[in-house]
Design brief:
It contains 7 helices and 7 strands; from the N terminus they run αααααβαβββββαβ. The chain is α+β, with helices and mostly antiparallel strands and about 220 residues long. It has 2 domains: about 60 residues, lambda repressor-like DNA-binding domains (434 Repressor (Amino-terminal Domain)); about 130 residues, Electron Transport, Fmn-binding Protein, Chain A (Pnp Oxidase, Chain A, Roll). It has a 6-stranded antiparallel β-barrel.
């Protein structure tokens, strides 16, 4: 089996996608705004020669660069490899809050039996805290006042850059009816996992730290 970044394997995936779309290699070159000869050179040389060129090819084919490299639309991040001269930079607390925004997808870490678990949840930021919805006895439902961790991150596959924010705190259930109504009206409050998730968990950070991966 070919390595996922082998030039021949990537070129084959591009050819197969062109066939499905009913376009020729010249059509692809026009869509990607590059000369046909340069496109052919990229296909022979592989993704490492011009990563930006493969981003344009992927966009012209209606998919992601990762999908071209791995053959999977659902591949985990990281196949693009690190950028040039990577290094970590600590974030201030203010930068952490700015990066996590008003809502998004994070991961809650819980100490349970038989061992710790980390689960994705969609969250909202509310009054210097993180809140998310869960259900009674659901996997992401912590015990009242349980110590938890909460992590949010982002990776830029093309540039090999990213950031992560880590929160340590305690989980508390929201019970005030007015608070529950207000939280439910915030952008991003609808559970991505669907189902009946009537309980709101709030995490007030005791500590919030972050790091940014920079390159160049």
């Amino acid at each position: 089996m070919h390595d996922t970044t082998d030039p021949a394997a990537v070129a084959q995936r591009i050819a197969e996608r062109c066939d499905r779309l009913g376009i020729t290699e010249d059509d692809l070159a026009r869509r990607a705004a590059m000369a046909p000869r340069y496109l052919r050179h990229l296909l022979d040389a592989g993704p490492d020669f011009d990563p930006g060129g493969f981003v344009r090819i992927a966009a012209a084919l209606g998919c992601s660069r990762d999908e071209l490299l791995t053959g999977r639309a659902d591949a985990p991040p990281g196949h693009g490899g690190p950028g040039p001269h990577p290094r970590l930079q600590n974030l201030t607390e203010a930068e952490c809050w700015e990066l996590v925004g008003t809502h998004g997808i994070g991961r809650i870490g819980l100490a349970v039996e038989p061992g710790p678990v980390v689960l994705p949840v969609n969250y909202v930021v509310d009054r210097a805290s993180f809140a998310f919805r869960t259900g009674e006895h659901h996997a992401a439902a912590p015990a009242e006042s349980a110590p938890v961790s909460f992590e949010v991150d982002r990776i830029d596959e093309y540039l090999g850059r990213g950031w992560s924010v880590l929160v340590l705190g305690q989980a508390h259930y929201v019970t005030d009816p007015e608070e529950l109504q207000r939280l439910a009206a915030l952008p991003g409050a609808t559970p991505w996992a669907g189902g009946d998730r009537p309980r709101w968990v709030r995490i007030r950070p005791d500590e919030i730290t972050g790091r940014r991966l920079i390159t160049g």
